[in-house]
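Re: [help] complex structure
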Amino acid sequence: MSKPNSAKAEPSADGIRALFFDVFGTLVDWRTGVAREAEAVLKPLGFHLDWQAFADAWRDRYQPGMEPVRSGAMPFAKLDALHLQMLQNILPSFGLERISTSVQHQLTMAWHKLDAWNDVRAGLERLRRDYLLAPVSNGNIALMCDLARRNQFPWDAILGAELARNYKPMPEVYRTAVEAFDLEPSQCMMCAAHSSDLKAAAENGLRTAFIARPEEQPGMSESSPTVPVNFSAQSIEELADRLSI
Amino acid sequence: MSKPNSAKAEPSADGIRALFFDVFGTLVDWRTGVAREAEAVLKPLGFHLDWQAFADAWRDRYQPGMEPVRSGAMPFAKLDALHLQMLQNILPSFGLERISTSVQHQLTMAWHKLDAWNDVRAGLERLRRDYLLAPVSNGNIALMCDLARRNQFPWDAILGAELARNYKPMPEVYRTAVEAFDLEPSQCMMCAAHSSDLKAAAENGLRTAFIARPEEQPGMSESSPTVPVNFSAQSIEELADRLSI
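Output below.
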């Protein structure tokens, strides 16, 4: 499926100027990273959990945790603050209800310390030659900066939820990103491992690329998109093969 | 005044985590660049102006052009849109009242094609090792991205007016930048060639560094700050000498 780097980009890539990336799951392995960081913080305090189950439980609170902002029931708060609330919700299920606020904050910083999948850095470096690149993530700016430093993501700008002051899949997140680059929606492509994100992007006129991430949550990840997309690839490197001009 | 790169940062740099940069004048030479681009667009159309006087006249409209947004008289509009309005205001003085809208847009893009002063790239590369770096400019995100690509500015994020939806020296521009990095104001330092910018930053609790840019507008540039500052340097390289940890 992949083409040599020197090949012309596929016709359907015509006119694309910017690539927007989902980050959690699509570019970074949150499950392994959160499990590892939780163990590093909690094991010395005498806790012995199923660390991956802990990461999964935390992530399960992700979509419902943003819903009050999307519905307007609460004003915008950064994902760091919502991650802390989601954590507080799951503490009792893991016998962690007595951990201090300071330990809760340390745990929340786990989301700033996630590692990219192996193909990401080289793929983004190649895509950067021909396209503007930005994360369009629900993660806040400081979180995106920490992940970018750790993994050497070559972003042109940090777009996404904090700029839009709302959360994906609300239309304003995609629209604000498009407007920040002074482009038309059809000149921008959302790249994500999750069909819900791509569906919303397409509804707002963006083009879409599905990136398969079977390792995100083995057994639960989407192996192929459930919605029509412009591209479907197994890695960011393959996306670069397909899009290189 | 400069120290070897391996020296310890000065005591007053203690606790600084992020450096915020003014861009027009402080990092890039808008006067030469706008004059050059205006000549490139208008000379083939048969116009022969004093190109530097044209650049100066355009820039003279800069502060008053943002005032309606600051006062609340008009909603936020990106600097590109304001640059176009400012241009339209000066066209008659240069006998340019008949140029087309398309030429006006081409001229406005001159502000996306400015070159950095010689010391900037190397200085920022060194500072990036120890500090988060971001522009806190009145320029919009797309404009900042174009200048960053052209001059290889290694930004962690594009902060400033478009994120805050207001213009410096309004407090929210500095505060929004500080909050985006999850820092305290005293952990951030505003670096600029203009005392008005540094005064407002200091009033909002940020630390300040004056960068002398005598070539910005010869005869009119500040050779030293008119307000108290934490650092004063002749270049970004000198700032890196002083701040390197």
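Chain B has two domains: 11-29+116-243, 30-112.
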